[in-house]
Amino acid sequence: MVIEFLLTSDAIMALLTLTFLEIILGIDNIVFISIAANKLPEHQRSKATTIGLFLAMAQRIVLLFFVSFLIGLKEPFYNINLSWLQIGVSWQSIILFLGGLFLIYKSTSEIHEKVENPNLDENSMNKKKLKSLSQAIFQILIIDFIFSIDSILTAVGMTNGLHPNHNYNLVLMIIAVMISIGIMIGFANPIRKFIDTHPSVQLLGLAFLILIGFMLITEAAHLSHTNFFGNQVGAIPKGYLYFAIAFSLFVEFLNFKIRKKNNA
């Protein structure tokens, strides 16, 4: 019985761990969703955030059903063998590489707009806003798909061998996704409003996305077993990335407290 399996200590520990990992990996997603939603008119921002996350949950559940297909994306379908470069190209690495380029391009464009044109008039700003709610949700779903590849493959690796019946493991992963998205929906709009009212935090979030985009590109090179002039590209430990983000947020929090105290 599925219920008996879910109540075992191994299943409970796996569920807690998976939920925690989904939330941690979803922090990047919330930052991007906040920036995309804040380019909409005020009355559509909360709706875009909520609908985007609900559709992201549905998208991840559908992807879980095609998990065997996603695992197959890791296998290279083309090999590049040059004297100075060797790459085993796979669909997974292509998705991560294009996702990284998209994040870097989008974040750099946003930073350029905010730094070079800080005093745009209202009409100019309206031209920069997203034209529709569906356009914002489409961007949210694209970036969630990119992040989903990594998180779903991680979930599959953690639940592999937990139960001989694959459907039981699938139910466990679906529950973890639903809980994590539910928690993110509760915090997404407060985070979005905070980012919108604090431009320095918004720039910091965009800088994080550039860093994450670079990490996705290096991850794609690592998964492709890229060898460049005799040196193999290694994976960047995600702990380093999250420590850098946490440290930067801590410094920004101190700056925020100091500014608040000086303005008091």
From TrEMBL:
<feature type="transmembrane region" description="Helical">
    <location>
        <begin position="48"/>
        <end position="71"/>
    </location>
</feature>
<keyword id="KW-0472">Membrane</keyword>
<dbReference type="InterPro" id="IPR036259">
    <property type="entry name" value="MFS_trans_sf"/>
</dbReference>
<feature type="transmembrane region" description="Helical">
    <location>
        <begin position="240"/>
        <end position="258"/>
    </location>
</feature>
<keyword id="KW-0812">Transmembrane</keyword>
<protein>
    <submittedName>
        <fullName>TerC family protein</fullName>
    </submittedName>
</protein>
<feature type="transmembrane region" description="Helical">
    <location>
        <begin position="12"/>
        <end position="36"/>
    </location>
</feature>
<feature type="transmembrane region" description="Helical">
    <location>
        <begin position="201"/>
        <end position="220"/>
    </location>
</feature>
<feature type="transmembrane region" description="Helical">
    <location>
        <begin position="83"/>
        <end position="105"/>
    </location>
</feature>
<keyword id="KW-1133">Transmembrane helix</keyword>
<feature type="transmembrane region" description="Helical">
    <location>
        <begin position="170"/>
        <end position="189"/>
    </location>
</feature>
<dbReference type="InterPro" id="IPR005496">
    <property type="entry name" value="Integral_membrane_TerC"/>
</dbReference>
<comment type="similarity">
    <text>Belongs to the TerC family.</text>
</comment>
<feature type="transmembrane region" description="Helical">
    <location>
        <begin position="136"/>
        <end position="158"/>
    </location>
</feature>
<dbReference type="Pfam" id="PF03741">
    <property type="entry name" value="TerC"/>
</dbReference>
